[in-house]
Design goal:
Rossmann fold, elongated, 9-stranded mixed beta sheet, 380 residues, alpha/beta, 6-stranded antiparallel beta sheet
């Protein structure tokens, strides 16, 4: 069998045509009720952004290495997670770097397994939103696909199957069957580091980066779509994130947490744990991108972040307003409501204003995750 070409359409046929192999590109699987399945070329390649922002490149490289350094005839990869978390994007990255013709399967075809088995060359088969096509299928309708994934159809040509799904296991017959699906990768929301990387590249007003990261990371689903859409909103309207997000179509992931702090002493030790207050809002998680940005909780600018010890423990140079009350009283200093929070005439040195803050979840916090700096002064 070889490919018979008519314009952008390619049909499997007897050796009466000079198209011996399907050229690399993106093809859609199509059914003609009279003549059966064929593929039509829809694009030379997937449209990809100029930067991948480090999104799951380690996993992508692992899949590629397995394909290139093994003799597997069938390699199945299932990418799962909520919409917009990057699973389809990652699948496209893998497909692009495989260097194979990609056949897109967008509908259920009973004849699909036989057709794919007959393809006389190595190909990548891409089934997006797999659960929509196969979740409710009867066992006999699944048999052909499972045999295809098992490599039962005898062929000397290799197949890579990329499946995306909103469910971890869109079909029970795929679970614990690495011969069918070797890898199952679950995509959660973006990390703060990934959100910050995208914002550093696309956000025009970099002074809003930290607040944008906080909003997106606190959303019910921290997705690529949400991140880029909010960045576009800020770039278009040139207004504060806090104002624009009020009418923006994104829900907050509500978390209850408390804030504690320790004084950084001159001898390198840390003072007693001090309770600051309880808060409700998107859970704050910090990374190295946070250094130099405001430390904001409960709508209050408490200080600037000097260093990050972990995702929930940071060193902050606090504003005059957040110096200990007794210390303010001892020097007769009163913070004015309209005072510049980092006034140059501050009576306190940066060393006096240095504290380590901890963000502590109130719903099942695990102390074991705290870095040594927090435990330096004993249990909190």
């Amino acid at each position: 069998m070889i490919w018979q070409q008519r314009g952008a359409d390619f049909r499997l046929a007897d050796a009466t045509s000079d198209v011996a192999e399907l050229p690399c590109g993106i093809y859609q699987l199509v059914l003609n009720p009279q003549t059966g399945l064929y593929v039509t070329r829809v694009s030379d390649r997937f449209e990809m952004p100029s930067s991948v922002y480090g999104l799951e490149t380690a996993f992508k490289n692992r899949v590629l290495k397995t394909y290139r350094e093994s003799s597997l005839l069938s390699l199945g990869v299932c990418l799962t997670g909520a919409r917009g978390t990057g699973k389809t994007f990652t699948a496209k990255l893998i497909a692009e770097e495989l260097g194979l013709p990609v056949i897109l399967v967008g509908a259920f075809f009973a004849e699909m397994p036989t057709f794919i088995a007959s393809v006389p060359q190595d190909v990548c088969v891409f089934i997006d939103e797999f659960e929509k096509l196969y979740r409710s299928r009867e066992e006999d309708e699944m048999a052909g696909l499972l045999s295809l994934l098992d490599g039962v159809y005898k062929s000397r040509h290799r197949r890579v199957y990329l499946l995306t799904s909103n469910d971890r296991f869109p079909n029970i017959n795929l679970e614990d069957r690495p011969g069918r699906v070797r890898y199952v990768k679950t995509f959660a929301g973006l990390s703060r580091e990934q959100i910050a990387e995208i914002a550093r590249d696309l956000l025009r007003d970099q002074t809003q980066l930290d607040e944008l990261v906080q909003v997106v990371s606190g959303a019910s689903t921290s997705t690529i779509d949400t991140t880029i859409a909010l960045i576009e909103e800020v770039n278009i309207h040139d207004a504060p994130v806090s104002e624009l997000v009020k009418d923006f179509n994104v829900r907050e992931r509500v978390t209850f947490y408390e804030l504690r702090r320790r004084k950084c002493e001159a001898d390198g030790t840390y003072g007693k744990s001090e309770f600051i207050g309880e808060f409700r809002g998107g859970l704050q998680e910090y990374g190295q991108h946070s250094v130099g940005y405001p430390f904001v909780h409960g709508g209050e600018h408490m200080g600037d972040i000097e260093s990050v010890f972990s995702s929930d423990v940071v060193q902050v140079t606090v504003t005059n307003r957040y110096m200990p009350k007794e210390l303010l009283e001892s020097i007769g200093y009163t913070v004015q409501d309209d005072e510049d929070i980092f006034a140059e005439e501050s009576p306190f040195t940066p060393e006096q204003r240095r504290y380590v803050y901890q963000i502590r979840r109130l719903d099942g916090y695990r102390r074991a995750s705290l870095p040594p700096v927090w435990d330096a002064a004993g249990a909190s």
